[in-house]
Amino acid sequence: MAEAGGLAETLVLSLTLVENHLQEKISMLKVLQLLSSTSENCKLMTKAQAGSRICSRLNDPDPSGQLLFRSSEILWNLLENGPKEELISQLSTIECIYPLKDSFVRLLTNSNRHYDRQLRNDLLVIATLIAENNVTPMIESGFAKQLILFATFSEVKSHNPLVKNLKLLHNHEDFEMKKLLFNMLVVLAKEFSAIQLLSDGKVVLALFNYVKANEKPGKHDWPAARFEDLQLHAIATLTTVAPLLLEDYMTCQGNTRILLFLDWCVSQDAFSGQGNCFHGIGGRGNKHAHMRYSLRLLRSIVAQGDETVNQDLCDQGAISQLLGILRKLLTDVDGKEDSVLLEIQADILFILSTACENDLHKKELFGTDGVDLLLQLLKMDSSKFYSGLGHNKLIFCTLDCIWCCIIGCFSSEDYFLEKEGMFIILDLLALNVKNMINIVLGILVEFCDNPKTIPHIATWRGKENETAAKLLLQLWKQEEEELGVRRDEYGRIVDAKKPLVGQFQEAQEVTPVPANSFSIAIIEVAENIRAKLYSIFSKIGFDNLPGLSTLDYVTLSVISRYLDFKVGEVWREIREELKAENIKPVTSDQEVLDVIAKATENISKTVASHQTEIIENQQQTELQEEQQTYAEMKSNNKQIELVMKSWDNFLSRTSNYESLKKAKRLQEKSIESSRPKARPKNAIIHSTQIPHLNTTVASGRLVTVESTPSHLIGGPLADTDIAVKRVSIRGGALQKTMSVKMFNQHSID
Questions:
Q1: Residues 264, 211: contact at Cβ < 8 Å?
Q2: Does the entry feature the keyword Coiled coil, yes or no (predicted)?
Q3: What is the number of alpha carbons within 13 Å of residue 98 lying toward its C-beta?
Q4: Under a CB-based contact definition with an 8 Å cutoff, are residues 692 and 707 in contact?
Q5: φ, ψ for residue 467, nearest 5 deg
Q6: Among the four 133, 222, 391, 504, which has the fewest Cβ within 10 Å?
Q7: Cα separation values, 738 from 387, 714, 749, Å
Q8: Entry pTM
Q9: Domain boundaries, given as residue ranges, for the chain
Q10: pLDDT of the residue at 732
């Protein structure tokens, strides 16, 4: 009923009628407080400018304090249930900021009741929401400067009368206010005009007061759990503020403070983190949360790229210290990894990468110890990349660290290769992780400048025994397929005028661009991996690559002319840009453009012809191999037939008497036909028949048949020049004839 009747809107508009009547005004605010519990009424109240009407009268005189309480409760309900953006826009005016500031300062400096402290914190939250939307009125009203003062007065001495007698009682409300003030510093840091206020308020110095070992709390200090929460919150605030105030950071010796704090984080002492707060996640029973946020702070500092700050950091031994921390983490992890530890490792690698990039001396400081740690991280199980804990971020930071800390330092490169690091890089490439391929190929390209890399690439073999060249060609084919480059079924060039252009690139019309802007053809080089693959092949060569098929060589012929094709593509864009701008080149320039276009097309046709030749040669080779294989099969079949025929003949002779007689007749006929027709005189003729021979086949594996004793025929050396005895011309047994005896006697005489 109230929503339908618009009661809330009417009451808001009626507030101006009772501005000078305190009791009636408080009564109306009570009703509005009840009505603001529903979203519909909040919308109606916001429409009636309830935010600005109520907030602008926060500081009206009221001895009971009901006015401020009811008004703040209504504002809270409006922020929770109503259109938040519209309401904050109403509150972001000077007319609203001044009453809000005065009310907050009065509650902070003059009230000690629990109720007042809670109300003070509520107003601070509202002020923070306003600052997130628009900091300018906060600065113009001086509220931002006062909030900075209240955030730092307990750490940095100030003579401002507002804080001269102000003390925090370390109760829950003051603890919450301290964290809200830290959060306000982060909000103010987003506005450039507030940077000078932060510097004047010595915010960096105040926050660094918490970057120290958490010793035993004194009598007037925060309890251990609350101090840990404030400590982590302060370091998190520094992560946002310190990069904007590098001068103050260096004045406070920020690098030294952080490195000393990191020393404490890895030291063995009795401290044990509570891990109860938002920033303390993963830090229960250890110092991981402290290490995590201090490394975040250091990462945000080095990311600014200030040479003075980074050099100061390295001069204090940060590289060796960070490597020591990383080594300890990898040693102590013992298979128990969580997102906090992985983030710490990734941040260390990022800091090292930023510090060592483009500085040979720092890369030498990174040295072999750093290479060993990177190799250990590279051997991470690939199944963890998608665990959700942060392994994917860690492997990317590891690859970036290889790029920045190893490449360019020959001693580190050689040690990396010696430890088979290139094999691990190629194994990562073989995983074919889409968002990792470009980075890995970039590392591979840089390593190819080292001549010792080429043998490692040539030696590598994948899980299916594929070579590195085979892997690179597979990546090229995959990339062209994704780009929509036109190729036939064998991978040959189809469009001689646009041999590299994909469907997506072709669909983009060439538009005139300024001279200092990149054209589509140039941008395409950076967006895909083909240029990197061409660079690698240029180093390892295009000939005599092992493990490639014919279709691979067809693709390789395109890669070998990639640069020529890309140059032609750029010239084609120039022609199209001139045409789009209606610029007609002079005759000589037009002739040059035509010659270049024709030359590019001829190169494409030459490559296509070479590809066809490769395919035809392969088809011819396959045909010859097929014919040879068929001939071998035919010969084998014929041999099998002969063996079967011989076997059938053998069976017939051993099982059929008539067949045996037929075989015998054939044998006798063969023997007779082989005898010489003219026989020597007195020659002895042996019969082909051996009497009483009953065996027709061999009865065992080894049978010795002696039809004539060896001492009668002179042994195996008979009829040779070295025979001991001569065989008679008449054949048969050796006989000592008289003529021989007489010849011997004559020789003796």
A1: no
A2: yes
A3: 7
A4: no
A5: -90, 170
A6: 504
A7: 109, 19, 16
A8: 0.79
A9: 480-634
A10: 42
